[in-house]
Amino acid sequence: MAMCARRCGAAPVMGALMAVLTALASAEEPERVVSIGGSVTEIVYRLDRSDQLVAVDSTSTYPAPAAELPDVGYMRQLSAEPILSLDPDHVIVAADAGPPVVFEKLRSADVPVTRVADEPSPAGVIDKVSTVATTLGAEEEGEALAERLKTRFDALERAMQTVGDRPSAVVLIAAGAGNLMAAGRATSAAGILELAKARPAIDAYQGYRPLSAEALIAAEPDWIVLTQSAFSSLGGGEGVRDHPALGATKAAEAGRIVALDGLFLLGFGPRTPDAVTRLAEQLHSDLPDGAD
Questions:
Q1: Residues 146 and 183 occupy one common structural domain
Q2: Residue 47 and residue 228: Cα distance in Å, rounded?
Q3: Do residue 142 and residue 173 come from a single domain?
Q4: CA dihedral 158, 159, 164, 170 (to 10 degrees)
Q5: 6, part of any domain
Q6: Is residue 205 part of a domain?
Q7: Contacts from 118-124 at CB under 8 Å and sequence distance 24+?
Q8: Which of 38, 171, 188, 232 could form a disulfide with 120 if both were Cys (CB 3.0 to 4.6 A apart)?
Q9: What is the bridge-based pairing of β-strands 168-175 and 180-183?
């Protein structure tokens, strides 16, 4: 009877313990998340965890339902008050979001903040997925998404091994009559060109800087790649050809101009394999089958 009592009593205790552990695990999964950074928000949706979102930032333009959520502002010019007013239990931010004092205020208010590293490479995309998935308590979904992305990236690399000459390209993220903002080294633009088997025409500096007409013409890019917003601000293809600096390049004269959505092209998120494919198809006329 004593043995039975010990055994029979153990079951309720173990059941209660498992219930407590389950409750603790559920409590650790955030229910009111603010996502800051377009690629971070894309990952949340791709993990099917959008029900945990209460707000995003202005760069979170994809997928379309993200635009229906409250907007806490531009990711590099944030304020703590609009975020805190939403009573979040976690904030997930892209690495270059700021200013830093905002996140110090959030932590002081006992709001956990997870920064997501932003390395412009296939490994960097997969790391982003892992970080976001772990933060949301979606490890299983994260592993599945990471595996799908790895498969896509590996297929792209194999398909493009036969690409010979790498054309040069200048990537413009903003453009106007008297202003061209171009990507240099150590940028997501340089990363996407590398994956698409192209090389940066501008490599004299790191980051994004204004580009003079003289420097652009001297670079002699084979291709001009623009974000859609930059392309539109110039008035489309005709505006590019009429631009005093862009129009003087052989790329513009030959119509070698590519315009893609900025987040799609430079976000390094779940759609990056598609972006690489789209760009490579434009840059390489002899791209073999299988790149998609």
A1: no
A2: 27
A3: no
A4: -100
A5: no
A6: yes
A7: 118/37, 118/39, 118/94, 118/188, 118/268, 119/268, 120/187, 120/188, 120/190, 120/191, 120/192, 120/268, 121/191, 121/195, 121/268, 122/149, 122/150, 122/153, 122/195, 122/272, 124/268
A8: 188
A9: antiparallel
Q: Cβ–Cβ contacts within 10 Å for residue 260, how many?
A: 18
Q: Are the C-beta atoms of 196 and 265 separated by less than 8 Å?
A: no
Structure tokens of 131? Answer: 């970080």
Which residue is associated with the tokens 């959520």?
A: 69
- Encode the chain in three state secondary structure: CHHHHHHHHHHHHHHHHHHHHHHHHHHHCCCCEEEECHHHHHHHHHCCCHHHEEEECCCCCCCHHHHHCCECCCCCCCCHHHHHCCCCCEEEEECCCCCHHHHHHHHHCCCCEEEECCCCCHHHHHHHHHHHHHHHCCHHHHHHHHHHHHHHHHHHHHHCCCCCCCCEEEEEEEECCCCEEEECECCHHHHHHHHCCCEECCCCCECEEECCHHHHHHHCCCEEEEEHHHHHHCCHHHHHHHCCCHHHCHHHHCCCEEEECHHHHHCCCCCHHHHHHHHHHHHCCCCCCCCC
The count of other CB atoms within 10 Å of the CB of residue 71 is 15
Total structural domains in the chain?
2
CATH number of the domain residue 249 falls in = 3.40.50.1980
For residue 162, the one-letter residue type is T
Q: What is the pLDDT of residues 54-76, one digit of tens each?
A: 999 999 999 999 999 999 999 99
Mean of all residue pLDDT scores within the chain: 90
- Its pTM stands at 0.87
Reported as a single tens digit per residue, the pLDDT across 28-39 is 789 999 999 999
Residue type, 131: T
Q: What is the pLDDT of residue 56?
A: 98
Segments forming the whole domain that contains residue 122 = 33-158
